[in-house]
């Protein structure tokens, strides 16, 4: 693992650092407000490492939700990972000892950084992807611990703080839109989600939307590949 690899991964992860420190801090404060202190914030961010699920988890812990509710909620909230991770199979195939952790650490934001497949010149591909994942994970843990610690000395209302995750998703979407020439995937995601939201309602639209997006993008795969080749 050479210096160029470490430097390139660190630079690539900096945009996520800004978001994760702030969002992790929000989670730590929210969890502290629910009655769970720093060890909980650290353990949840280290071993669960799922921003939106952790925000929901803080509310479930506070309300005393059952184990079954927790399991079903986890599946519903993180179901999208099953779909977008498929596109990373080829990139992770030769990851060797890095693979288990890279699979675990593939969040929405890490996916956004790595989905393009570009690896900076002079960097080792799999080590670079591993380090991007590791740096992002460390930012999230740091933010969560910081928020939990601040929650003991800076008490304030946590109402509305969960919207910070939505803001991060919007920022990630905007970044991909600006960087990509082909907006078909983005428009497909928006339209399919809107249709499923109308048909299935706010509590049941996520998995149908993911299935519909996957089906549509599969049908459009060859067209998008041709477009990508023409733009090169």
Kindly describe this structure:
This protein has 13 helices and no strands. The protein has two domains: 3-179, no CATH class; 180-232, no CATH class. 26% of the residues are buried. Helix 1 (3-33) crosses helix 2 and helix 1 (3-33) packs parallel to helix 9 (125-150). It is globular, with a radius of gyration of 19 Å. Helices cover 75% and strands 0% of the residues. It has 232 residues and is mostly helical. The two termini are 30 Å apart.
Features:
2 domains, 232 residues
Strand and helix layout:
Layout: H1 3-33, H2 38-47, H3 51-63, H4 67-78, H5 80-84, H6 89-92, H7 99-104, H8 108-114, H9 125-150, H10 163-179, H11 184-200, H12 206-219, H13 221-231
Helix pairs in contact: 1-2, 1-3, 1-9, 2-9, 3-4, 8-9, 11-12
Instruction: Report the end-to-end length measured between terminal Cα atoms.
Output: 30 Å
Structural class: mainly alpha
Number of helical elements:
13
How does the overall form come out from the CA principal axes?
globular
Strand coverage percent: under 5%
Any idea how many domains?
2
Q: Note the main sheet.
A: none
Q: Which value, in Å, is the CA radius of gyration?
A: 19 Å
Order of H and E elements: HHHHHHHHHHHHH
| Secondary structure: number of strands | 0
Poorly predicted runs are: none
Helicity range: over 70%
Could you report the average pLDDT, rounded to the nearest whole number? Answer: 83
Task: Give a nutshell description of this structure.
This protein is an all-alpha fold and 232 residues long.
């Amino acid at each position: 693992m050479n210096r160029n690899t470490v430097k390139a991964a660190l630079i690539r992860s900096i945009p996520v650092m800004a978001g994760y420190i702030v969002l992790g801090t929000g989670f730590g404060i929210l969890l502290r407000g629910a009655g769970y202190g720093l060890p909980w914030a650290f353990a949840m961010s280290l071993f669960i490492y799922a921003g939106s699920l952790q925000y929901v988890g803080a509310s479930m812990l506070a309300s005393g939700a059952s184990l079954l509710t927790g399991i079903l909620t986890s599946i519903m909230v993180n179901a999208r990972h099953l779909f977008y991770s498929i596109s990373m199979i080829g990139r992770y195939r030769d990851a060797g000892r890095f693979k288990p952790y890279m699979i675990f650490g593939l969040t929405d934001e890490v996916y956004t950084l790595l989905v393009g497949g570009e690896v900076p010149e002079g960097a080792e591909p799999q080590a670079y992807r591993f380090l991007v994942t590791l740096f992002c994970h460390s930012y999230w843990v740091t933010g969560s611990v910081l928020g939990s610690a601040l929650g003991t000395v800076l008490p304030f209302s946590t109402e509305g703080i969960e919207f910070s995750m939505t803001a991060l998703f919007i920022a990630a979407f905007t970044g991909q839109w600006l960087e990509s020439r082909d907006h078909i995937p983005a428009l497909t995601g928006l339209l399919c989600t809107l249709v499923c939201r109308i048909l299935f309602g706010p509590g049941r639209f996520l998995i149908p939307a993911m299935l519909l997006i996957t089906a549509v993008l599969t049908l459009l795969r060859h067209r998008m590949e041709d477009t990508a080749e023409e733009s090169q």
